[in-house]
Automatic annotation (TrEMBL):
UniProt xrefs under PANTHER family: GENERAL SECRETION PATHWAY PROTEIN A-RELATED, PHOSPHORIBULOKINASE _ URIDINE KINASE FAMILY
AAA+ ATPase domain location: 61-320
Lineage, broadest ranks: Bacteria, Bacillati, Actinomycetota, Actinomycetes, Micromonosporales
The organism of origin for this protein: Micromonospora echinospora (Micromonospora purpurea)
Superkingdom in the source lineage: Bacteria
Protein name per UniProt: AAA ATPase domain-containing protein
Residue ranges that the Swiss-Prot or TrEMBL entry lists as coiled coil: none
Pfam families, A to Z: BrxC_BrxD
Amino acid sequence: MDAFDHLDLSGEVNPYPSSAVAQIADAGSTSVTIPTVAVRRAVNAMDSYLSAVRARPQTPSGQVLAIVGDYGTGKTHLASYLIRHAAASLGGAVQSVHLNAPPDTFASLYRAFADKLAERRELVHERVRSLYAEILADELRVSSATAPVAEQLRAGTIDPVALVEMFGLMESAFLRQLRERLREVTDNVEFSQALTLLLRGGFEDAVWEWFSGASPSDVLRERGITEAITSSETTALQAMGVFALLIGHGDHPFVMVIDELDQLLTAAGLRADEAIDAFKEMLRVFAASNTFLILAGLPDLLGSLRRDVRDRITEHITMSTLTAAEVQDYVLNRQGGRLEPFTEQTVAQIVDLTSGVPRQVISLCHRLWRRAHDQRSLVTPPMVRQTAREIYDAGNAQNVRAEIRQVLVGAGYDTYVPDHFLDSGVDSRVDYWVPVASNDVGCAILLSEPLLDDTDIAAVERRCRSIRAHRDCELLLVALEPPPARYRQRLREAVGREPLTYHPRSFVDQFALEFKAMASRLEERYPQDGPLAAVAPHLTRLDRRQSATQHLLTVLTGSLEELRGRNDQQLAAIYRELHDIQRGLSSTGGERRGHVAVVATLPAPVVSLFDAAFSAVDLLTPARELLRRAFQEDEGGRGARQSVRARMRTSEVHAATGVTALLTSLIEAFGHAVVEWYGSIDQPPGSGLTARHRERLDTICRVFDVVYEYLPLYQLRSLQGMVGYTVPDRQQQEAEDLLGDFSSRVRTELLVALTPVEG
């Protein structure tokens, strides 16, 4: 849906996305790309690749592009833009696959790739037939009598399999040549054998089951295919290279994205060099094909690779932060050429407070536009500071504290004191005091409030001076958001080291390293005296290890109890669903129940979207499960009842529960409106999908967007706290992304379902 549309009934739609997390598969027409240096370099690399493929389709033109940058700097957005740019350049004639690398093995990466591949069976079959047709054409064009047939084979107007059967040609000889051609891609004979079997009737399902990562069936074992593709990381990566060569064969561009690769390489690097060697070979195969491979990850992505592996990467691009001029261009683009309600001053202030990180810029613009629109005023500097402070205050403070406790207890420093005052002065408070060498010496950990202006920085400086005046200690400042660049030198001088910025995926490891280094320095400065001084460090380490082991056992015990509880819940849910199905079949003829029943008459993809939306609400608001658990007569039930009694009376939970009810009602009402609209299509008969229908659908979607805009979803985290666990960041983000872009996805699927297929 167009971001610049206006809605007279409910006001303007916010031109800035509520979620600034890019999704390649869902990139819409309203996304805006700022032509930074990194973007221009990436586009030049893509244009060079496309030109080479069109000019010399038989010469491998593959490239491997690495895009690195910190969180929120636009790596995924750039990869998405490159795919759209390639499709626009070739009129849509480009194949693309986007994978999010799991923090696991390359075999898991292949399984994700195989799931995408299964959706393109016909494409794989067509490419194999094309190779087969080339082999037949080479044989037939030597004779003037069969040369025209050879040309038709190359043009794809004749089925090579049917031709062999029609003329009684030596099928076995041609298939053997095809296997040899495919073996030029890889030394693994099983891949070429399996792909060749796709040309022979009766083997397709068995071959595709093997492609999915399953063990080969008996019919494949009889033909020499004995191991699963995922039996080793080497074969899994070889398979990805084979399919890349196959899909990108000839003049068929193929763009593949592997996002968040750093977390996969970290897991791979902990095991052996075999996986990295296989990855190096995969890069070689991709570069030797007609594939444009995009690797995206954090700045340490390239540093985690061996030099010989990095040499396989054609070009490295580092994402940069945005300048004030670039953000102003973005605002003008989003708002149809006008700058209001922003000004040049407030745009510069936004860049300063966010350090030009695109995700934070967009999030702040989204909130500021809404506030200015509600107040019917311009965005002012105080408004920018206040809004930024609200965003940061609603951030990850709870997660930070939990992860700090996890590291300290796990390292054996369970004597830490939270919210400790070194004297009676307010500025002497530290968020965590960890005694190391003695009670008077230790590590002080400070959690910063949002560091947005001189007042905030001065407060940190006062605290640091006060702490150092009373204790000899190691100081560490943990910032929930990166402080503005112009304050970093002052913070380094006050604290004595770089602030540690919180990132969900890496904070635990980074904090553990920082704390270990600080504690070690203190232990060296203050060695213990007395007859046991020589063995004291060893005893201390043993004590810490014992404490860490006990902590680990406690965590494992809790995890096992939680797993058992979840299994019991899932089993109970299955029983309930089976009972509902049985009751439904007997009383209503199998009619669908629950919220999704509202939209049961819509096309299947739309029903799936609504199902996913209701599931997202359940994920973000798990209070229902807690209340169910409270009625159980077991240990879990007693714990749930205590949790309910402790938290149910809080205003935060009441507000969050109200938001949940409103959000559910909004999705249901939207579903009713869409069902009514869908039922009006082809009324009167033969009218089809008219401009009036499209306009009405746009209005329905805009109403949903405007109402959703004003729901304070950040309050839903209160319900997660009531239940006693936090939704994983990735699942939380995916749920919020789905809801933020829900109407646009529904609209797209409806129009696709109602668009007649030509041919």
